[in-house]
Each structure stands twice: as C-alpha cells, then as structure tokens.
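Q: Could you write out the predicted structure for this multi-component system? I'm mainly interested in how the pieces pack against one another.
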Amino acid sequence: MQTRRLFVAAAVAAALWAPALAQEKSIVVASTTSTEDSGLFGHILPIFRQATGIDVKVIAQGTGQALDTARRGDADVAFVHARAAEEKFVQEGAGVKRFPVMYNDFVLIGPKSDPAGIKGSKDIVAALKAVQAKGVPFVSRGDRSGTHQAELALWKLAGIDIAAQKGPWYRDVGQGMGAALNTASAMNAYVLADRGTWISFKNRGDLAIAVEGDAKLFNQYGVILVNPAKHPHVKAALGQAFIDWLISRAGQKAIADYKIDGQQLFFPNADRPGA
Amino acid sequence: MHEGSSALALVLGGDPALYAIVALSLVVSVSATLLAAVVGLPLGALLALVRFPGRTFIVVIVNAFMGLPPVVVGLAVYLLLSRSGPLGTLGLLFTPKAMVIAQALLVMPILAALTRQTIEDLWAEYRDELTAMRIGPLARVMTLLWDARFSLTTTMLAGFGRAAAEVGTVMIVGGNIDGLTRTMTTAIALETSKGDLPLALGLGFILIVLIVLVNAAAWGVRRAGEIRAG
Amino acid sequence: MRPPVSDLPLVFEDVSALVRDVTLVNGISLQVDAGAPTVLVGPNGAGKSTLIRLAMGLVAPTSGRITWGGRAETDGQRRAMVFQRPVMLRRSVAGNIGYALHAGGIARAARRERVADLLAQAGLAHLAGRPARRLSGGEQQRLALARALARDPEVLFLDEPTASLDPAATKAVEDILRAIAQSGVKLVMATHDLGQARRLAGEIVFMLRGSVREQSGAERFFTAPATPEGAAFIRGDLVI
C-alpha cells in the first residue's frame, strides 16, 4: 500500500498528461459522503483491486447528487442508501438493477447534557417528538442524502410535519455527514447520523449517542449499474464485476471485516431477500 | 493546541499520500496558470493597444470576471464536461485535466485584466518613442511584453495564488477522488468534514506556506526588476 | 541599405493641426532644406513642438500637405527624434542602442561594433552595462541621441533636448550635436534657449502663436530681424 502511494506521488505529474494507463481498467462509482467518511472504501477497494485489477474511483456526494451524477452518465455505478430513490432510479431506466449489499444503522447523536431528556431510549419516534416539543437544537443535513431522507421519514412517522413545524431550533445545514456532525458538535445540538461515520468521527466535542437500536433506524445500502442503453460509454462489464464482487462471499467478508476500534460498522446482507 | 502539534508531526513525517496531494495541487495550479497565460496575456495586450468596437464592453467584463466565484466556474465546467453535456464525449470529467481547464478559466480574467493595465500604462510611457522609431505593431507588442516582464511575472504569480487557494472549482469538476483528483484544498475540506482536524491543519499549514512563498517571490521579482532594469 | 532617394527638402504646404478644438498650428507653409542646422525658436505655445511632431508623423495634419523630397508617402526610416524627456527602455544602455539597431534592420553580427561606436560617440562607453533608467538626466539624453543615430538618419529632430538639463550636461549634448551636424546629418531643433540657438543654428525659423513669422539665416535673424515680434523676442520682451 505504501509502495503504491509512493509511486503515485512520483508519477502524478506524468499521469496528468500521459494517456493515463491507469484508466485502462477503472470505473467511476458515485457514492455517498457517509460511506466515504466512514473509511469503508479505503478498506475494501484495495482488496477488490487486488482480486480483479480494476481501479475504483469514488466520487463521494450526497445520495441525491450521487444519483444525479449517475443519471447524467458521469459514473458507471451508483452505491447509495435510499431505497425509494434507488428503486425510482431503476424504474425510470437510469439503472439496470438494484442489488442490496449491506446495512448499518442510524443513531441519534446529542449533547451529553441531554436537554431533550431522551438518552438511552430505544424509541426514535418518541425521542423526535420530545426534541420538537422542547424545541432543542437539532441539525439536519438538508441535502437530499440517504440520511436526510431517512430523517424526514422518521419525522413523518412521529406525526410531525417538519416543513411546517420547524422552528429556529431546526438547523438545516445542507452539507455532508461530517460537516453536519461538526456543526452539531459546535452548537451542542442533536443530529441523526449513520453509525459508521459516527464511530470514525474524531471531533465529538460534547456529543454522545442518545438513541439507538430502534428497528426504524435500519439503513440499507444498494448498488446499481448505470444503464448502458442510456449511456453507451458506461463500462458495463467492469461495473458489473464490481457489483458481483460486492455481493460475493469475498466482498461481503471484506465489508464485515472493516472495523474501527474493534467495532464492525457495516453488516453485509446481500443474501437477504427484500432488503 | 494539540491539533497543531500533531499537524506538524504529520507534515514533517513525510507521509507519501500527503506529498502526492501537494504535488497534484502544484501541477494543476501551475498548468492552469500557464494555460491561462497563453490566452490571457495576449488578450490583455490586445485590449491595451487596439481600439475596436465593443472594446469597452469586453474590458468591463474581463475586469468583472476577476471576481468569478470558483463554485460557479466549477458548476459551469461540470455541465459542459458531463457525459450529458456538450463536451461529454471527451471524457474529461473527474480527471486532473478537467481541473486544469476549470482553474485556467478562473485565472484567465485576472491575467488579462492585470496585463491590460500594465501594458496600457507602459504604452502611454513608450508611445512617442516607439512611434518615432517606426516600430511596427507586432514588434511593439513584443517590446511592451518584454519591458513589462517583472510586472507580468507578478501578475502570473497572482494568478497562480488564486488557483492554488481555491476549492470550489476543483471539488466539483475533479470529484476529490482519492489518489487521483484530491488536492490540498479539497483534502482540507474533506478532512475537516470528517472531523480529522490534525490532517486538515497540516495541509492548511503547507498551503499557507506555499502562498506566503508565492507572495515573497512576487516581492522578490519586483525588487530584482527595480535593481536590474530600473 | 541607404535608399537613393532623399527625404529632403521637407515641405509643409498650408498645414494646420487641430487637437480637441485647439489650433496648434495654423496654415504653415515652410521648406526645410539640407545643410546647416535649422533651429525653431519662439515663445511657449508657438507651435514648435507641434511642427516637429507633424514632421515625424506623431500628429496628423487636419489640413494641408507634408512632403518629403517631393513624396507624400515615405517609410520614415531615415528620420529620428530626440524628446525633451527621453524614455529609456527597461534594458541596459547597450541594450537600448541594440534595440534601435534591431529596429533599423541591422543584423546581429554587425550590431556589436556599431553599438560600441555609438557608445563612444555619446561618451557612454563606460556605462554600457548599466540599466538605462538609472542614468542621470544628461546621460539619458546622450543615450537618446545615440539611439537616434543608430538609425543612421538623414534628418534628426530634437524637441527642446536640453531644457531639463543642467549647464554641464547641456554643453555635453551641444558638443555632440555639433559633431553630428558636421558629419552631414540635418538637424531640426526646437529650443526656447536663445543662447543655444545662437550657438548651433545655421538657419532660424521664428514661430509665434501657431504660425511661422520669419525664416532666415541665423546671423541675419539675430542682427536684423524682419518683424517687430522677432525683435521683441530677441530682446527678451516676448514671452507668450
């Protein structure tokens, strides 16, 4: 790994202008900031490259932007976590087929002082109701990401029309997970985060997990090949190879093996029907 | 400030990934500045010396575009280079080449506007003499560009500084891909958002040192100019 | 390559020049022949500078005609000019002269010797490598002269060349001008310094308020001016 990086450092100027040999076998994957920020790709992609020789270039954006990038044909594969949006993507013909890959869960993060009085709860709906009722600061990603869409769905489950009922306590930052966590840390606010990003996040300040373990906080990831019928330049064979590997035993094991501080972040479930 | 000391440790530790990022930043920004100069310097000289219909309008636009927001340039180039866009077949999006093109567009108005001002001032000074010597139009331009060489070098350094410091353009058209299109500024943005402040700070130190060096070089060039050519 | 045709006589036919509604010269008819230096005298605003600038093509006449050796169109390569305040290129002293030689089409091989000659003529050989802009006023004016001579001119125009110089520098310049005139170059010089006019002129052209009042041999002008204004000017009574 070190040798590879040294080589990159030395050859970067030449690589800029030479007909990039590295691009012979490579794909562009549009994925989410939370997946990137958690460090998962840093772990599994070298394993994939070792096995197939395919270089994966990850563009990390919010789910909404990632799907848009894929829709425009600027990526070969989309790897996001917003099932409804993914299925719509396939339905409209932008993607070939959705494969479930893994899940992690969301956790509600909040200040240790717990002004909403919800720490240790296993009921996310009740917790959100308390946050809204007491008007304690809450940071939302507001960026059409998978996390953002999950947050909106949870407000709906709590019977709260957040668009109408938000007040100055609801801080819509329009940024990725890491940035939202930074903001929550600075403001001592509650924020919904995926466990993966939370575990590897280093700037915690006074924040800790307030609510976890509710089944409603389940966060499923899916991978989709961009439709070569719509974008003929898409590297369909290489992209499918990536998808096949992700759902194969080797890929699923690589995902499960990724740990931070001994904690597993992602749970492979490609074999689970209806995931 | 414990983040500061670990940042310093990272920088001095010679992490190869770190230096790859620095190298890419330099290559992209230097290339972009040179590319911008190829168009910007002659354009500036042209605007300074030739009166043509619509000149005032172009001068105003070029001056205004010195302040182009980088994200806007990034977005515009992204839409151009996207597979669904007019130049999609070139396959340039998310590559260092796209970053160079986008930064060149950002820097070009600066070079053109500053060159125009420099050449205009110099021409006002040289006009009588060069006309009396019957210097033809092309030779005139070459003379002015050469005699303005110290100011023009400072201009180029200003353009480079702008390119090296911006993040919006390269983030959008480059995609901040690890090992391929990650520059100092996009890496700082990423590491900050991940909460890894020591690394972000380390990169920030290097970026600031780079910018200070560029400005010191600009000052040095001016001084050399004053001493050597008066 | 010396073309066979001459740029002289320089003839102004009823030339007027207006710049932004201000009449600088009005209906000038004048002939300048080869030979001894022609010196233009007159108070400020008389139009001396304008006349020279018209001759050099720096200003276009609003009406009238200027001809050179009978021709209206010339390439102007045999004419050179020295300004009151010379502008030095941002190069060395030798570089400035080399530039003028290059502009005059002299090939690189021949240039070095020529540069040395011109530097010697202007008394600047010891300053060859110095940045030209760091010379004193007098030295810069001598360099301007050397630069003008580099073009091997038939006619050398000078617009108040010593007006900004101290007496020592003025004398140095005048010595060079005398040498140039003796070598066969026609000098046409504007000055407001009567003493200088007496020292250098072969012919005087007296101008007042945009027109030519007198043109005669220098001695004749100074001893017996034809017009009362001319006489007043020589006495020092006519300033404007």
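A: Regarding packing and overall arrangement: The first strand of chain A starts at residue 26 and ends at 32.
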